[in-house]
Amino acid sequence: MTDRDIFEMINGLSAEEERLFATAGDGGGLSGEEIQRLEEIQVQLDRCYDLLHQRQARRVVGLDPDDAKPRPGSVVEGYEQ
Q1: Element (H, E) at 8
Q2: pLDDT tens per residue, range 9-19
Q3: Of 15, 27, 28, 49, which sits 20 to 30 A from 75 (CA to CA)?
Q4: For residue range 66-76, what is the model confidence (pLDDT) as tens digits?
Q5: Three-state SS for 70?
Q6: pTM
Q7: Structural domain boundaries of the chain?
């Protein structure tokens, strides 16, 4: 997966997230399924950003960015901000 692939995934997930927020903003709120999907999107976005950071770090130290691996949501969601 290239940086471009990851950015395209981020753009797609962000667009879906915006649609869900727009749906909630019309006063009707979100269904249980929509809330669950929104949570899934947020985890996937965190995983994408984590992968980009891994790739950048590998590049900086002269390693192959393609060796970076996506981490599970349980790992990236446990990071302290």
Answers
A1: helix 3-23
A2: 999 999 999 99
A3: 15
A4: 999 999 999 99
A5: coil
A6: 0.88
A7: 3-76
The token pair at 69 is 């691996």
**Rounded Cα distance, 81 and 78, in Å:** 9
d(CA 24, CA 73): 25
Q: How far apart are CA 3 and CA 9, in angstroms?
A: 10
70 close to 51: Cβ distance less than 8 angstroms: yes
- Tokens 């393609």 correspond to what residue? 66
Task: Give yes or no for a contact between 38 and 30, defined as CB atoms under 8 angstroms apart.
Answer: yes
Among candidate residues 77, 4, 79, the one with its CA nearest the CA of residue 45: 77
